Amino acid sequence: MFAQLGIYPSLMVFTEEMQQRYARHLILPQVGREGQERLQRARVLCVGAGGLGSSCLVYLAAAGVGHLGIIDGDRVDLSNLQRQIIHGTPDVGRPKTESARDTLLRINPLLSLDLHPYRLAADNALGLLRDYDIVVDGTDNFPARYLINDACVLLKKPFVHGSIFQFEGQATLFDPGGGSPCYRCLYREPPPPEFAPSCAEAGVLGVLPGIIGCLQAAETLKWILRTGQSLAGRLLAFNALELKFRELKLRRDPQCPVCGNHPTILQLKEYQPLCDMRNIPGRSGTHPDEVTVHDMRQALEAGDPRIQVVDIREPAECQMVSISGVQNIPLSSLAERFGELDPAKIIYLHCHSGGRSLRAVQFLKGKGYTQVKSVKGGIQAWAEEIDPSLPKY
Q1: Distance between CA atoms of residues 144 and 119, nearest Å
Q2: How many Å apart are CA 360 and CA 367, to the nearest integer?
Q3: Within a domain: residue 390?
């Protein structure tokens, strides 16, 4: 079932250029002239112009979706280009919204674009999403996902979800107005910051967001065209290493706090950003389980026998950059190798930016280690504050 588009009848003139540009759509019985005009009138908001948003936006623009909104407060970084195909090397340093705009208009100059060069937040989400027919979740973090979900449920607006992790991805359609389950029916609450995998630390195969983003684009186009069977109530999971798709049945949770029979979430809540532990509001100080990179440097330079410093990043990360004299026990091996740590010593753990090391602290405390600390900011902070000659990733 597909909901009615919240749009006014079109006054557009179907030009000869449109006839040629969309010819392969026009000969499809499921699209035709009427369907192409529906695409032209549709208003789609993509939250995020990164990996997922790149391929999704490109195909929505090429398909003739007439009005696209893009919200993203980031700038293009060199590390983005391995997967974010909407940006190029000359765009490094530019706002992602502007880079995406230029690419999309080169593909289809008939587009109307709204750029929102800022972060989606609790105080702007409802007003922003209200102006669009359907929302595409192209984000890479839990706070944004829950914010999009809650806003769309409150507005009864459909949104196409996608997420990726290393070699795996998933996609679905949440349609609150159609009675489908929502994201909270799957995962009721976001994980605490110290247990959420960092966006930069987890890594991702470059082609994966392209595959999932294309699935999101297909689902968005189907919803606009009112054709085919939507993913509402179904989660499509993809494993790139095995090149296999799996389908999981989703059910609405009557106890869901936002879409259930007796909802308790009646307004939007701001969640702490999880991707960079150093940038969480209120974390200008040091957590009780943390030390600074300056503390780590002092321990290394002094050769303090009471302190054991351990790098818990994966070997491939250590090959890119490492600190001389620091032992490596990857987090993935910590459960088998924690016996190599001396419980009588103060143990400093560092990773890429501080997320994994905090999780490792919790694990080791559960094993009886009482003097274990996470190095705040990890090797990224070390490169920024101690040794700027080190490469960043």
Answers
A1: 9
A2: 11
A3: no
Is the pLDDT reported for residue 281 higher than 90?
no
What average pLDDT does this structure show over 171-194? 86
Residue 79, both tokens: 């590390």
Domain for residue 392, yes or no?
A: no
Q: Are residues 58 and 85 in the same domain?
A: yes
CA distances from 119 to 49, 209, 258, 265, 377 (A): 11, 20, 22, 22, 22
Average pLDDT estimate for 357-385: 94
Instruction: State the chain's mean pLDDT as an integer.
Output: 90
Cα distance between residue 91 and residue 100, in whole Å: 9
Q: What CA–CA distances, in Å, run from 80 to 101, 199, 382, 393?
A: 17, 12, 22, 10
> Domain span at residue 302?
290-385
Can you tell me the distance from the alpha carbon of 342 to that of 339, in angstroms, rounded to the nearest whole number?
7
SS3 163: strand
- Encode pLDDT of 73-96 as tens digits: 999 999 999 999 999 999 999 999
Tokens of 161: 């979800």
Instruction: For 317-340, write each residue's pLDDT tens digit.
Output: 898 899 988 999 999 899 999 999
3-state secondary structure of 147: helix
Q: Would you name the residues annotated as active-site residues? A: 199, 351
**How far apart, in Å, do the first and last CA atoms of the chain sit?**
44
For the chain, helix (H) and strand (E) counts, in that order, are 15, 13
Burial class (CB in 10 A: 0-12, 13-18, 19+), 241: exposed
